[in-house]
């Protein structure tokens, strides 16, 4: 196995989720990641519940294998301790609102002046420019502003929140990582660094390729839950079972639809779902609701028709398929020596070290990486 980023050093000024997950991916590919944290409490994620050892379980998951340097960035003397590191670091990741790093004297221009090859990645909700650039927001705001949330947000009497922080991870983490890798490749060719402007809201539009295509072509824009992949078709829905579980039915193609219809014994006069989609969906729902999840799990395994029973996360972690893939072999260890499954990362196995247990850093554990300058006393012999 090789670690393609083993010679890469990262200074990570980010907190919470998008940036820390991005630098986790880089660390898992061999990069040395040094978190810059405020003294005393460290980054906010350390205090989250549930606690696991000294810090939170969330912090342990996202910061496995990193280092920690505790500095008060508002103190010029402490900030100056970063200069030796900044001279030979490869990547800076920051997640403040636009202008904050500049006020600290740590903007891209400030750092590029001492290290022209720096790759400086700024992750924000709305980007470094534009009318909303300075606006506060969280994941729900970004998916709401981009139009993504409106495509499937439940009924007014029962709004549905997405089960994942889509903007943070898919709009922030993933674009940050692949643009950093692109910048590294470009630097190999040109010798030049780059400032990467990663906007979580900007990066949500690829998820709506189908809605953009449909709306612009037909001038009939998809609404809330009325399109093929958002619940507007009987062929792509969640159907409750008799024991309170759900079937994830996705037999879109005709061959899968017919196999699905056979498996649930759908009457022939309802198999043409273009005639009366609502009636077909109602009949499918009634058939699924008549039997428990175990019945349908076996039936759909035989039918192989793009239908499954929705698993809980606990069930997924015990699924022989994911276990056989080696997805869950890496571990994270806390300060008490307890271990649990580490967060799986999308780094191909050949680019990671062998499965092992690693810890998130204790606050300031690596302060020796930026020692204080020795005072010049002016003594003479």
Automatic annotation (TrEMBL):
Domain of life: Bacteria
The keyword Transferase belongs to this UniProt entry's keyword annotation: yes
Region (Disordered): 359-381
GO molecular function per UniProt: transferase activity
UniProtKB keywords: Transferase
PANTHER family: ALPHA-METHYLACYL-COA RACEMASE, SUCCINYL-COA--D-CITRAMALATE COA-TRANSFERASE
Name this protein carries in UniProt: CoA transferase
């Amino acid at each position: 196995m090789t670690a393609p980023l083993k010679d890469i050093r990262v200074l990570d000024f980010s907190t919470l989720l998008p940036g820390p997950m991005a630098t986790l991916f880089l660390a898992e590919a061999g990069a040395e990641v040094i978190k810059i944290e405020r003294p005393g409490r460290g980054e906010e994620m350390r205090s989250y519940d549930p606690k696991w050892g000294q810090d939170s379980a969330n912090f342990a998951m996202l910061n496995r294998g990193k280092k920690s340097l505790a500095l008060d960035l508002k103190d010029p003397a402490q900030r100056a301790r970063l200069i030796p590191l900044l001279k030979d670091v490869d990547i800076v990741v920051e997640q403040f609102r636009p202008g904050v790093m500049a006020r600290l004297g740590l903007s891209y221009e400030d750092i590029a002046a001492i290290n022209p090859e720096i790759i400086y990645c700024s992750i924000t909700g709305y980007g470094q420019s534009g009318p909303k650039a300075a606006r506060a927001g969280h994941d729900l705001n970004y998916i709401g502003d981009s139009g993504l949330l409106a495509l499937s947000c439940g009924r007014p009497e029962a709004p549905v929140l997405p089960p994942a922080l889509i903007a943070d991870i898919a709009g922030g983490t993933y674009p940050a990582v692949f643009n950093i890798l692109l910048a590294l490749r470009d630097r190999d060719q040109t010798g030049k660094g780059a400032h990467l402007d990663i906007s979580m809201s900007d990066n949500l539009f690829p998820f709506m390729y189908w809605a953009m295509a449909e709306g612009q072509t037909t001038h009939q824009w998809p609404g809330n839950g009325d399109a093929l992949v958002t619940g507007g078709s009987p062929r792509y829905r969640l159907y409750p079972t008799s024991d309170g579980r759900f079937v994830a039915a996705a037999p879109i193609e005709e061959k899968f639809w017919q196999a699905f219809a056979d498996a649930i014994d759908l009457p022939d006069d309802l198999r043409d779902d273009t005639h009366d989609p609502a009636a077909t969906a109602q009949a499918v729902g009634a058939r699924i609701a008549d039997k428990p999840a175990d019945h349908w799990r076996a039936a759909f395994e035989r039918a192989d028709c793009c239908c499954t029973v929705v698993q809980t996360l606990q069930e997924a972690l015990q699924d022989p398929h994911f276990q056989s893939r080696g997805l869950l072999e890496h571990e994270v260890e806390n300060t008490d020596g307890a271990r649990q499954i580490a967060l799986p990362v999308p780094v191909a196995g050949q680019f990671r070290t062998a499965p092992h247990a690693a810890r998130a850093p204790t606050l300031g554990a690596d302060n020796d990486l930026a020692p204080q300058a020795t005072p010049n006393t002016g003594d003479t012999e």
